[in-house]
Amino acid sequence: MTEPGTEPDPGTDPGTDVIRVEGIGKSFGPVNALTDVNLHVRRGEVLGLIGDNGAGKSTLIKILTGYHQPDAGHILFEGEPVTLKSVVHARSLGIETVFQDLAMVDDLPVYLNLHLNRELTHRPLPFLRRREMKRLAREALDSIGIAIPSVTAEVGMLSGGQRQAIAVARSVYSKAKLLLLDEPLAAMGAKESAVILRLLQELKQRGDIAIILIAHNYGQVIDVCDRVNLVQHGEITFDRRAADTSVAELLELVNAEYRLGDGR
Ligand SMILES: Nc1ncnc2c1ncn2[C@@H]1O[C@H](COP(=O)(O)OP(=O)(O)OP(=O)(O)O)[C@@H](O)[C@H]1O
């Protein structure tokens, strides 16, 4: 259901959508997590997904990563209908997720973390091509403007913001077409959040990747996102260009449901 005055972005051109979902529904036993969800994101666009705890944001992201299968609706990836069978399948198409635990190995250096499960070897010999991996890691980090003192530094020695930035760089390095970020700024200080927000701006300017970002700080969402979707009780109730909304309006929409005695 879309509230009057909050109709989806009229400038939508389905031809440039990296992903488009239509009529998605998902239940867990008696819990209706998602109902008739429509969402799309274009190349070079950052879509902010906001909503209260339990609204359904993570469930939607997990459907896009291939982790959950929807009960209803369909998904178009680069214009083609697709069934995302698993996380591995989604990744093979170019759908990458930066998880909250970041899946990093703390006692390995930055360059090996960047190549995790994609290590380069001197085939047929199983020796690692360390020099090449260091060079590529440096190139990948430089290309998206991440300042890491050394690619040979152990990841465990870096700040939360730097680790998060490396996780994003790893997804980009693997040629992601759609990057999903589930609360990358949660539990981060202002300085560390700024590193990630700058990185997202950088990726946006490159224009070759679509990004969906779940975040609770509406100010940051409006700063970095092109468009904002609000999820309420498993439905997208608001779809607006970030430039055409405000923190006050988003807060008002979220708080209104409590005033109506509808908060769960
Ligand atoms: N695996 C599961 N089994 C049963 N119920 C689930 C499962 N995953 C999510 N839910 C339920 O689905 C609804 C949506 O949850 P979801 O995690 O998607 O919300 P969210 O918007 O991401 O919340 P938060 O901001 O707190 O992370 C909630 O009622 C939740 O309890």
Can you walk me through this structure?
- The protein is an alpha/beta fold and 264 residues long.
- The chain has 2 domains: 1-94 and 177-264, P-loop containing nucleotide triphosphate hydrolases (Rossmann fold, 3-Layer(aba) Sandwich); 102-175, no CATH class.
- It contains 8 helices and 10 strands.
- The protein has helices at 57-64, 87-93, 110-114, 130-143, 160-173, 190-206, 218-224, 247-259, and strands at residues 17-28, 31-42, 46-50, 72-77, 80-82, 95-98, 178-182, 210-214, 227-232, 235-241.
- Helix 6 links the parallel strand 7 and strand 8 (210-214).
- The longest helix is centred in the last third of the chain and has 17 residues, at 190-206.
- Adenosine-5'-triphosphate binds next to strand 2 and helix 1.
